[in-house]
Amino acid sequence: KTSEAESILRRALKKKEAKLGVDHPQLGPLQTDLALCLNGSEPNDEVEGLLLRAIKGQESSSDQDGPILATALANLAALRKQQGRIEEATTLAARAVEIRAQTLGDTHPDVALSHGFLGELALLRGHPEAARHHLARGALLGGPGNQNSVHALRIGHLQFELGDLRAASTTLQGALSQAAAEFGTTSEERLVVILRLVAAQLEQGDLSGSEQSIDEAGRLLDRLPQVQQTLRWSFSQAKATLLRHRGQLTDARELLSQALTEIEGQSATPESVQLPVSYTHLSVTAGMETCPKPS
Predict the structure, then answer these.
(1) Neighbours of 244 (CB within 10 A)
(2) Best CA proximity match to 37, nearest among 61, 16, 9
């Protein structure tokens, strides 16, 4: 569990800090891993501080660990994206992909993941051609054996946003199977992929397919009582859109009205699909990489 991993990482980091000093480069992996665990559950200040310390330690070291530095840069880029600092996020992500290509090789899966993230940032900056470039690189490098559900979800999202709906549906179907294998059939991660798939199916006018996906998402929500409120809202939006396509306007309005009533008083504002913590830096809307599982 994340809380267990956080406790283990905090103890390990404190022990190493006492032995090596708080700015030692060997602390980089622990600082980055702890930042990943805290993302979404703690104020950004602590997450940001851990990542900045990891970056400073690596950049000041004569024995720099490229992959560790790149991971810290990539996750700081993700945090900057969450903060709306898109230009800064792009600069950091570009540094990360360059370091990963140099140290891991240009065909490494992490390079593909980084290109996918740069593609998202390019879309946010209003540069669709740059997004297509990164999409092509990410899809090429993330082939069979290299992809995971996070990468497949990101590529599917980029394909959707760039209007290649058929390719997006195919990619997201693959992401759905991968999410089940990685996180289990009853997981928020799998729900996120289903909701993305519904959006692509509805845009194509595939009402039968979208209805099946929405039914599956509904059954999954029933088994996830603690699911994020934004995911429940996204489900209601998807179901209401299907009802509108079928001409059931009154039912659609009632569904959305009920959903809005349920979120009154919640601190979170309904948005587009949000991702659980484990889908962060490599995600559609937010954050960082998966919090390491305790051994």
Answers:
(1) 14
(2) 9
Cα separation, 268 vs 274, whole angstroms: 11
For the entire predicted model, the pTM comes to: 0.65
Q: From residue 67, how far is each of 101, 111, 142, 282 by CA, in Å?
A: 10, 11, 18, 16
The band of 263, judged by pLDDT with boundaries at 50, 70 and 90, is: low
Joined together, the tokens standing for residue 110 give 């992490």
Own/partner long-range contacts of 268-273 (Cβ < 8 Å, ≥24 apart): 268/228, 268/229, 268/230, 270/229, 270/230, 270/233, 270/237, 271/230, 271/233, 272/234, 273/192, 273/195, 273/196, 273/199, 273/230, 273/231, 273/234
Mean pLDDT (the chain) is 80
Q: Both ends of the chain: CA-CA distance in Å? A: 11
Contact, 177 vs 267, CB < 8 A? no
Tens digit of each residue's pLDDT (9 = 90 or more) over 128-172 = 888 888 888 876 655 444 457 877 888 888 888 888 899 899 989
Q: What is the pLDDT of residue 277?
A: 36
For every residue of 54-117, which 3-state class applies, written as one string?
HHHHHHCCCCCCHHHHHHHHHHHHHHHHHCCCHHHHHHHHHHHHHHHHHHHCCCCHHHHHHHHH
* Residue 264 confidence class, pLDDT cut points 50, 70, 90: low
